[in-house]
């Protein structure tokens, strides 16, 4: 089980955010959430996480921009957090663009929740 592992979900869709939260909470993850990249950076200033699930298309600051900002943080632990991109528009980006932004891995929408749980377990351990 994922005792005390902290996941930050960056997702502007309340439906996806709530579903993801419920599924990961059943796995004993501690969940925090944000609606945009700016909120992610504000939360990261105060707390540490084991993994970030990052929607790519969000208002205010999108997931690609936010990931690049995280990778440039002075705190090396936070700068190296595994970041999983979650997007319905993966075709808009190449794998190379995800890698250049600092995305660790990506999951397509609609989410396969078994794959989500497996990915979170693997990358947050």
UniProtKB/TrEMBL annotation:
Chain positions found as 4-aspartylphosphate: 55
Keywords: Phosphoprotein, Two-component regulatory system
GO biological process: phosphorelay signal transduction system
Segments forming domain Response regulatory: 6-124
Transmembrane segments: none
Any matching Pfam family: Response_reg
Xref: InterPro entries: CheY-like_superfamily, Sig_transdc_resp-reg_receiver
Family annotation (CDD domains): REC_hyHK_CKI1_RcsC-like (cd17546)
Alphabetical list of PANTHER family matching this protein: HYBRID SIGNAL TRANSDUCTION HISTIDINE KINASE J
Name of protein: Response regulator
Organism: Marivirga aurantiaca
């Amino acid at each position: 089980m994922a005792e005390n592992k902290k996941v930050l979900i960056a997702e502007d869709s309340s439906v996806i955010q709530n579903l993801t939260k419920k599924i990961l909470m059943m796995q004993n993850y501690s969940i925090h959430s944000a609606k945009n990249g700016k909120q992610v950076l504000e939360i990261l200033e105060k707390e540490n996480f084991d993994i970030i699930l990052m929607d790519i298309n969000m208002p205010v600051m999108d997931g690609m921009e936010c990931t690049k900002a995280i990778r440039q943080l002075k705190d090396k632990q936070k700068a190296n957090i595994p970041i999983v991109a979650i997007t319905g528009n993966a075709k808009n980006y190449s794998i190379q663009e995800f890698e250049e932004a600092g995305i660790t891995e990506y999951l397509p929408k609609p989410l396969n929740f078994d794959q989500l749980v497996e990915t979170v377990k693997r990358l947050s351990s």
